[in-house]
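Sanity check record (used in CI):
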Amino acid sequence: MKEVGKLAVLGLTALGLALAGPQDNSLVIGASQEPRVLAGDFLSIISNQAIKSEIEGYLFAPFIGFNADSQNFPVLATEVPTQQNGRLRVTDIGGGKKRLEMDLTIRPDARWSDGKPITTEDVQFYFEVGKAKGMPVLNPDYWERVSLKVKDARNFTVTFEPAYYYDTYGGTYGSPIGYAPKHIMGPEWEKVKAAARGLDPDKDAEKLNELYRNFFLKFSTPQALNRGAMVYSGAFKLKRWVPGNSIEMERNPNFPIKPEGGESKYVQKVVYRFIQNTNSLLVAVLGGSIDATSSVALTFDQGRSRQLTSRAPGRFDIWFVPGAIWEHIDINKFENCQTVRDLGLNDVRTRRALLHALNREGLVKAFFDGLQPVAHTWIAPVNPLFNPNVRKYEFDLKKAEALLAEMGWRKGPDGILQRTVGGRTVRFEIEFVTTAGNAIRERTQQFFAEDLKKIGIAVKINNAPSAVVFADEYIQRASECKWTGLFEFAWVSNLAEDGSLFQYKNLNTGAIMVPTKENNYQGQNIGGWRNDEFDRLTSQGVLEFDEAKRKQLFWRAQEIWAEELPALPLYFRANPYVVRKGLVNYVASAYAGGYGYPGWNAWEIGWESRGAVKKWDQAKYALSVK
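Expected output for Diguanylate phosphodiesterase:
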């Protein structure tokens, strides 16, 4: 059977049919993760997965987009606000702070997929929900600074005070200026408001959290979306979601932007196929059932594998897009957790010892041919704020052992470190969590476990599917000891760097950025690190519109971070994409759409053989494997 399949595929290639594109003018995208929810979770209260954001790029459109060249362009707004056209006003308000006002006009032909106009009522609704008391938003700072003034059904002004340097950046749906379908979600929201009216966000945080989560779930689960619970504003609308298998989207005839030559010449159906095991996903690509891969798909080494490159000529382009995807290991530093106290994870010496013991250079050489840079801070080299001169931790087992010896660790009879804590003898056995089924991460765990074993640290692997580990009741609950050691995953950053991943407190708003029960699990500093100078520098840095001064502030913040190591930096990913020959405008760059995903221009994606006009060249933004 395998040989027959291979010959069939090669035969099609020889006949040139692989270049013709699917007969039904569709696009099948392979992904190794499945979103937990979609669409109705417009504030990412339930899930903040990368795959969720990527797919929503097809389903929803921003007012102002961010193209592959990191430039703003109008999508559902009539034009980009600038100081030149008078739609952007910057005012000094004292104390080094500024106020930013942006006037936007919604396109007269902007409509939801059910034909209802998109109006300022939808913008007001988005802001009302986002500003609701106790709403467990990921970016509370945004909601503290932003306000809305509506002029009429299509015109509104958004004010940021204090203004941050990146507030004018366009990007994904909901950022920086969002909207949501009031005519669909509004009636249910009124019920939620009534139920929340007598609740106190400090005393009743859990009740509010449950109320809000249930609200978003009514419009975002596979079951709800399959019943038609939601509407869409992007180039596509959801047709069918088969959990564990696929999501099918079809062209949205109400989307106002029509590509050159007419939308019939471009992709009419987009299907995401979810194949959690990346080796199985590679087999599907080779078998011809996948047209392109997602940003969350094959691992770097699979993209360069001989198995794939030998099949690529005439069938696929293989691209490696340098990006701002930061692979790292977060560490639980909450001392109320017994394991954290026993292992000394909140002691910087432990974290330095761990990093010295991880052969990161060996990892990127073995797994990536040295083509993905070892990370030394959380800011990507493609970001203008990146500081290349921070403290670096070379692979040095002797330094690691010396640091641990300072803390009283000695090898026991089984070769594992032990020490006395509170009259008890504890072993240095550490939990290591990552996403199950991701081949490169699971191999990384094994690679690093061998390194750690050499200095007497035992590793206990505790993996689960992405939908489990990235659920807010897991990843956001380190303070409740849901995970107690190491957690490897990636953050996708953008040009709007604000340091909030590691702030304890945002000094501009007073918001606590460490998720705990007390703040209803808001914020993304999941490991619980605190450094007051870091908070001051990053809070000041986002207020600074002078590029040189802003860079200086973030450089110093990175120096502090590299000294303290709130997380263990691994590497910055160059994301591999496999794209069938003849597919045009499926283009990723470091910051396209705000986060680098393809699909930011979903309406332009198509097959040349069907008449689609090539507007964007992936070769400008990536290296290729021939």
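Residues 393 and 455 are 16 Å apart (CA to CA). If this sentence no longer matches the regenerated tokens, the check is flagged for review.
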